[in-house]
Design brief:
The structure is a single chain. This protein has two domains: 146 residues, D-Maltodextrin-Binding Protein, domain 2 (3-Layer(aba) Sandwich); 181 residues, Lysozyme. It is built from 13 helices and five strands. Strands 2-1-3-5-4 form a five-stranded mixed beta sheet. The radius of gyration is 23 Å and the shape is elongated.
Length: 335
């Protein structure tokens, strides 16, 4: 999708530039964007990801970079726009914006509006032309649909795509030697394909990376889908190396890698050591998973093999099974 969109968005930008009769639209600085989800209906629509994608392509059409962030719940992004701290604000609905002579807005589509400062008339005009032309392109439906579909994998019987990020997922699954549908299943489990997903402990983005991990693997912008998937894949590759000498085959290696992605490699190392203490064949993940319930008892801490103490590992066992269940279904419904 991204390779195709780069071509038609660039051509669209040239067409719209030709229709703008005013002077330069910008000084080459990044397009500063904020996406607000205030008032948006909760559910499966990936509105943040959709606006992020459009903002990137709009900036590309202007020949500039974009800096895109998610607005805070209580943040007054409209005030920031009026004071020149932002260039573009994306809101879910037109009725969420009061009439104001200092603002100009254009409908992005039925999902929301783009708002500009009235003082930035040329920019707003260009955006209106760009959006209007975008809606007439046959490629538009292909771009839009993956962000608005229902994503529960267990309720779909067939699909031409799994997510809006399939092309990225395929690239980074190849670096792991994974079937891309397995990586897609992991991402669905982590974030349901919402780029703005945040956990109470600070994990963020499509692959739910905690800040230290994100930085370690080169993710500077957790909201950026490609940066997040690339960093998460690098983490998976690093984790996978720890189990190549243990796992009986690639299927078991993937299960170990999923478990460590969820619980941490050190915690899974404890599980392996405990299973070996019991004489269990650790080359198969399910054998290890079967003894994990024992690790919640305080007596486990007395064993020299256990480094991190007790472990309530039910969630990790369920995590591996859920991801593999989604993966199995994805293989069935998507060519």
């Amino acid at each position: 999708m991204r390779a195709l969109s780069k071509l038609f968005f660039a051509a669209l930008g040239m067409l719209c530039l030709a229709s703008c009769i005013r002077g330069p639209l910008h000084d080459g600085s990044p397009l500063r964007c904020a996406i607000s989800l205030a008032g948006a209906e909760s559910g499966s629509r990936l509105l943040c990801g959709y606006n992020y994608e459009l903002a990137e392509r709009f900036a590309e059409a202007e020949g500039r970079e974009a800096t895109i962030r998610l607005a805070g719940h209580q943040e007054s992004v409209i005030d920031s726009l009026k004071h020149g701290k932002l260039d573009l604000v994306m809101l879910p609905y037109a009725d969420s914006l009061a009439a104001d002579s200092l603002l100009v807005w254009h409908p992005a589509d039925s999902c929301g509006i783009w708002v500009f400062a009235a003082a930035d008339e040329a920019q707003a005009e260009f955006a209106g032309n760009w959006l209007g032309q975008l809606h007439t392109l046959p490629e538009y439906a292909q771009l839009r649909q993956p962000f608005l579909d229902i994503y529960n994998p267990m309720t779909r019987v067939s699909a031409d795509f799994i997510s809006p990020y399939d092309s990225l997922i395929k690239v980074y699954a190849d670096t792991l030697g994974w079937d891309w549908k397995l990586l897609a299943a992991l991402i669905y489990q982590e974030s349901k394909f919402h780029i703005e997903a945040r956990s109470p402990r600070g994990a963020a983005g499509l692959m739910q990376l905690v800040p230290n991990t994100a930085r370690h693997f080169g993710c500077r912008d957790w909201l950026d889908p490609e940066e997040n998937i690339r960093a998460g894949s690098l983490m998976l590759r690093a984790v996978e190396q720890k189990y190549k000498h243990i796992a009986a085959n690639n299927t078991e290696l993937a299960k170990y890698t999923l478990a460590a992605y969820n619980a941490g490699a050190s915690r899974i190392a404890d599980c392996v050591r405990y299973a070996r203490h019991l004489g269990v064949d650790v080359s198969y993940w399910e054998n290890v998973a079967a003894v994990i319930p024992d690790m919640k008892h305080d007596s486990i801490a007395a064993l020299d093999a256990i480094k991190l103490g007790t472990f309530h590992g039910r969630e990790t066992v369920s995590y591996v099974r859920r991801v593999n269940r989604y993966y199995k279904h994805y293989r069935h419904i998507c060519p």
